[in-house]
Fold this sequence. Notes:
It is a multi-pass membrane protein. The chain has helices at residues 3-11, 20-34, 37-45, 56-82, 94-105, 110-129, 132-138, 142-145, 148-163, 191-208, 214-231, 245-252, 254-258, 266-278, 283-312, 325-341, 352-357, 363-376, 380-383, 388-391, 393-401, 414-430, 433-450, 459-479; strands spanning 88-90, 167-171, 177-184, 346-348. The chain is mainly alpha-helical. It has one domain. The strands form 2 sheets. A two-stranded antiparallel ribbon has the order 1-4. The protein has a two-stranded antiparallel ribbon with strand order 2-3. A hairpin with a 5-residue loop joins strand 2 and strand 3 (177-184).
Amino acid sequence: MGATDTIAEFFGFDEHETDYRTETLAGVTTFLAMAYIIVVNPAILSEAIVIEGYDQGEVFQMLAIVTILASIVGTAVMAFHANRPFGLAPGMGLNAFFAFTVVIVLGVPWELALAAVFVEGIIFIALTAVGARKYIIELFPEPVKFSVGAGIGIFLLFLGLQEMELVVPYVDADGFPSGTLIEMGNALQSPIATLSVIGLAFTFFLYARGINGSIVIGILTTAAAGWLLTLAGLVQPGVLTPDGAYDDVTNEGIVSLLMSVQYDITPLFWGFVEGLGMIADEPLVFALVVFTFFFVDFFDTAGTLIGVSQFGGFLDEDGDLPDIDRPLMADAVGTTVGSMIGTSTVTTYIESSTGIEEGGRTGFTALVVAAFFFLALFTVPLVQTIPHYATYLALVVVGIIMLQGVADIDWDDPVWLISSGLTITIMPLTASIANGIAAGIISYPLIKTAIGDGRDVSLGQWTLAITFVVYFIVYFAAEAGIIAF
């Protein structure tokens, strides 16, 4: 048996009716859909992380490197331990919470915040090892489990349309927010919106024709079109190309850019070590930060896993993911390692659904994602040249496809109607998967009781609902300054 046959057998290609070409294409697609995190995560965290003796640009590059390393670790564990086609990286939303809420607004030192993420990861590893996380996730009511996928779909769709400037903030004639908060973007005034519409139409055309790799072709074609229009002088630099990328490429050249990356990440590591020493000085603050990170990450990851697994057909008849403890361990390990080298919580990415749509079914897809993250270590500046609006085409396409999940919901049952409806709508409206799950979990026992079926609600489900209520009280009290950090 050759090496290729051994690898195929290890990942179960025959069992999942897949092959190298399909899994590789799926991995490339997922990576391209996730690659924006290499730029976005450092941009967010560098607002909060200041290191004496280093300018913001150097800190940015350090954070880009640790973002990639944390993604490699988490995704590699997903590939070999869980054998699932999911990519992992520092989570969007969780990184913003780390930087803007915990560090900047609440004044928690970034070193201590990293220590909190580390402890959260250790707790996750312990809970996953004993099966506690699996037990809690299986307590999710069926209406929540079967509606998460559609909720994530609308969330993805909304995020994509915003980045493509097809959905924009609504402002009055004087430029002030007004009315319905959002409105349709003017494609005739926005080059990004114009090119995005064309790229989206092209991608949908390829998808409808059954072309393999339609999403990745759409991303690369749209990005290339943006650069060609810029290089031809038809559009100003920085409009269809990332800020500063045009000057970097034309003035410094690709070789110079590739040789200018800051690979020394030891200042971030020593910052983490310093944060561990701060725990004894601020125990209450530390406990509250750990609790918040833990709670949001737990349910955000759970929702993502269930949603993309439903999309890929991995769930059983009860809406559960078999051996869910294995992919959960991947994000726990990724979070623990990531915090030690200087980044926020690592989680499973909803963009994994783009690779699943291309046919990814095994851990080999995740391995390909990890491999491309590894290559990105040496090509960080090149990854930065891919415009966000081009990669977000994938989110719009997959978001629409994921709406198929609403067919699994019993809309005639008031319990399903209300719990599922809240889960689906609250996610995009609050930009949080965890909030959508919370709405469904809290409403489920209440509606069950209202129709006289309260006895069908388990003690565990009541406990989950009450825990969410307590969490929101603590969170909003801290945000309002009632509880001081």
